[in-house]
Amino acid sequence: MDTKFITILQEAVENRTYVRLTYHSPIGEFLFQNTLLKAIHYASLPYEIELTDGSRIPIPNIIAIGDVTANNGVVYDDFTCDC
Question: Hey, is 83 helix, strand or coil?
Fold first, then answer.
């Protein structure tokens, strides 16, 4: 995870702005939603973000915030469908 991406996460929490969050679920589903980030939890690994609805998403599962992609080794081609 690069520092630019973590900075964007922190700014989204501090400014309480809506972001388009793209991530994958624990079972590998490709999901996105427009949401507010409530907090970043650093207490245990993996670090998590908390959404305003109370759900928590591990930071390594995040693919992108808006147009900024996380540098976590996930490639969008992993989520394309050739059907």
Answer: coil
